[in-house]
Amino acid sequence: MAYPQLDVRFAARALAAGGVISHPTESVWGLACDPLNPDAVARLLQLKNRPLAKGLILVAGDSDAFGGLLENLSAEQRDKVTQTWPGPVTWLVPHFGRVPPWISGDHHSVALRCSNHPFTAALARAFGAPIVSTSANPGGCQPARSKYQVLRYFGDQLDFVGGGATGGRQSPSEIRDLVTGQVVRAG
Fold first, then answer.
1. For residue 133, how many C-alpha atoms fall within 13 Å in the half-sphere facing its CB?
2. Superfamily, domain 5-185
3. Whole-prediction pTM value?
4. Residue 3 has pLDDT above 70, yes or no
5. How far apart are the C-alpha atoms of 71 and 25, rounded to whole Å?
6. Coil, strand or helix: which one is 167?
7. Domain coordinates in residue numbering, the chain
8. What b/e readout covers 115-126, taking b as 16+ CB neighbours within 10 angstroms?
9. What pLDDT is stored for residue 39 in this prediction?
10. 126 φ, ψ (degrees, to nearest 5)
11. What's the CA dihedral at 26, 56, 186, 154 to 10 degrees?
């Protein structure tokens, strides 16, 4: 499904201006912001009532957007990661100090996913870099599965809400630890 380029551009501009937006992903609606803007990340965490220590997921439209975050991986590790992308698999990858602590939380790894949702992938490409993307829900509530639920949770506190429907998956993205091979969250 194609999404209006105007929506994609408007959402990307909102991110670049330090906004927090909501967008559909493979399974649920997400909250997104610029990962290098500490004020935007703080606002997103406050909206979710999410502790900084947990860390956040970075989502891109193409694996090349992760650049230096994949460069210290062996060829075998890179292949393992990129064979699952684009798709609903999030990898915990050692970050070697290359991400700010408001992204990694208390972890030595960073969560990375290359989305196959058309709007989310187009948004990250239009933004020109990976974006923070986490489920659109306050702590303790079910993730939003519709634009209506996003608006019910957050009302007018977001800078953009749009992008159509989710990809229809019932389960969230799987999370795998690249170093240990452990499945942290089944998908």
1. 31
2. DHBP synthase (3.90.870.10)
3. 0.94
4. no
5. 26
6. coil
7. 5-185
8. bbbbbbbbbbeb
9. 98
10. -65, -35
11. -50
